[in-house]
TrEMBL record, chain B:
Subcellular location: Mitochondrion inner membrane
Cofactor: binding comment: Binds 1 [4Fe-4S] cluster. Binds 1 [2Fe-2S] cluster.
Domain 2Fe-2S ferredoxin-type: 45-129
InterPro entries on file: 2Fe-2S_ferredoxin-like_sf (IPR036010), 2Fe-2S_ferredoxin-type (IPR001041), 2Fe2S_fd_BS (IPR006058), 4Fe4S_Fe-S-bd (IPR017896), 4Fe4S_Fe_S_CS (IPR017900), Beta-grasp_dom_sf (IPR012675), Helical_ferredxn (IPR009051), SDH/FRD_Iron-Sulfur (IPR050573)
Segment forming the signal sequence: none
Record keywords, A-Z: 2Fe-2S, 3Fe-4S, 4Fe-4S, Iron, Iron-sulfur, Membrane, Metal-binding, Mitochondrion, Mitochondrion inner membrane, Oxidoreductase, Tricarboxylic acid cycle
Record-listed E.C. numbers: 1.3.5.1
Name listed for the protein in its UniProt record: Succinate dehydrogenase [ubiquinone] iron-sulfur subunit, mitochondrial
Family in the record: Belongs to the succinate dehydrogenase/fumarate reductase iron-sulfur protein family.
Amino acid sequence: MALLRTIIKNSTQAKLLAAAPVKSWQPAVTASTFGMKSIEANRTKPLTNENFEDKNKRLQRPISPHLTVYKFQSNMALSITHRFTGLAQNGFIYGLALGAMTLPASFPYYLGLLEAAHIPLVVLAVKVLIAFPFSYHLVNGIRHLVWDTGYSLTIKGVESTGYIVLAAAIALALYLTSL
Amino acid sequence: MDSITSKAVVLSRQYMQLRNLATVAAAKPAVAPRIKKFAVYRWNPDISGDKPHLQTYEVDLNTCGPMVLDALIKIKSEIDPTLTFRRSCREGICGSCAMNIGGCNSLACISKIDTNLEKPVKIHPLPHMYVVKDLVPDMSNFYAQYKSIQPWLQRKDESKMGQKQYLQSVEDRQKLDGLYECILCACCSTSCPSYWWNSDKYLGPAVLMQAYRWMIDSRDEATKDRLDRLRDPFSVFRCHTIMNCTKACPKGLNPGKAIAEIKKLLSGFTKKEEPKLNPIG
């Protein structure tokens, strides 16, 4: 072991290293050779304080088309229907409340007027129009709750539950209309 | 001398005749050109008063590669050199050529051209983004949002960082599958109607999936801080589970599910599991 150490100690390389210790590499030519200021290596601040919105408004860039070009798919359609049926129910309640406050007679009177018109199709249509938002929003709401637990959040899962929801909503609406 | 020259002439003539025969025999029968129309969104900021419009180009599919990017490059090199778009790897891994093709967001280099010659292919830039020129959107906001979620490993004690590998069990590593492969092409975020209407405050599926990737990494210890940074009505909760993101992803990833998992963590419905293997074990 000691022999090995002496051999290494006396080797040419060791002698050279002892004579002239290795300095860290310095470039021969730097920015100052050309009379330039040295550049900060880590500049993470942006060059200006202008934010994204202002810059794009200043350059008057258009916004790329969205609703007019995006392909209308089943998952989008069901999602927007959920929002619209929710708003529709909201509208019905508003209408009911406003009517109750402003109109002189009571609700059964107006219902009687509608039925006395003897157009059964109109009554049926009105019933379906009120029942469908309720049933669709209810069934799709259950689908949203299932999604919130994390289940069936795949392309196939969304598609298949979408069909189930549509079928169940129509069935429930028809049942409620028949009552 | 004369005989040699005449011999040379005869030989060269025979050689030329042989060559002509070979060329005629090898000549393919003329194939009818399959012309496909490409309607591409154009807007030039350097032309004052220019309005965004669709410009139609005709490409013979027999002389073009099968992907939409091949057609765009062919149009740029042979028909209109001013057509501007981003591209790099041509193999679906860099995310540069993300654009809206036929109504759906995808990468042009891995989208096959629909060979039905009756219908033109409509090509638009990624939806609801500021357009720099033609098919190039301004991605700065998207990148700033990615930076804001601090996409790097954070531990409580980082004094010995880099000295040893942080250990992770196979099971914990499998939790990252389907999350780390994101190439940040922005196809998902720009397909989300919520991101269209709220791109300044809602982070979008791509960034949220990466936030989740760092949250459930067993080696990361800053989960609580990561979640607290998202506790406002806009950053996560503008997601209404429309699921356009998962449909659009060209790499087959599922950002919608990742966002649902973030919501579960934020609400306290689930908690991050303890790492199966101690990272500094």
